[in-house]
Design goal:
This protein is of the alpha/beta class. Helix 1 runs antiparallel to helix 2. The longest helix is centred in the first third of the chain and has 37 residues.
Amino acid sequence: MTPTSPAVATLLRALRYAWRTPLLLWHACIDLPIVLLLIALGRGGALSHAAIRWFAGSLLWIFGLRLRREGTPLAGGTLFVANHVSWIDIMVLHSQHMMGFIAKSEIRGWPLIGWVVAQAETIFLQRGNGDSLEKVMDEMAQRLRSGRAVAAFPEGGTRNGRALGTFHARIFTAAVQAHAPVQPVALCYGVRSQAQHVIAFAPRESFLGNLLRLLGEPARPVRVCFLPPILPAGFNGRRGIAQVAQAGVAAAMAAA
């Protein structure tokens, strides 16, 4: 691809802002109240879930992210685990399947996104609080036993997007306790995952700063790869599950 001159790149970014900003405002001010109504009418059922998936998918389209799904998400009580790049990962996964996320409690205060994830059955974790973690694990196991999907980012947080972090085994405890399948998901931004570092938070970049920067980025493909499920009964504890899940996600990210 021929490199774009700085002047042309600046012009193209300005044009993207001019096109996408009104769409984002419409989505927040017009579409969001409709989604609120549908969620209320759906009472946590299929209508509510469909409204959240539509809202997330439309938001991604506004940001120029063109999704392609590989594989099929399991129905019922499944623990989905994915690599964590940015806040937008939650929107990508919600656009494909309804799942209650394990997320840091700070997300509640994020504009727009905080509300969406709160309505989408999110379980909030106070990082560094052992009691909070135990409550989260109990809630995860209960949901899995009742046939509801739960999602987590086993790396424990976002990074610079240039390397996959270690999958911490503790997050898989709930699946082992509930005898529920684990389905790894690889989120691959750009061709051959080459835009992971672009989507990731820059050093000391805030949520709002990241959102505004991504709003001006060129359109790019996103592969959402739902990998073969892992059945806890076939592995020797949560550590083995974590290792297999991490290896699967790493292989999918490296694939063309």
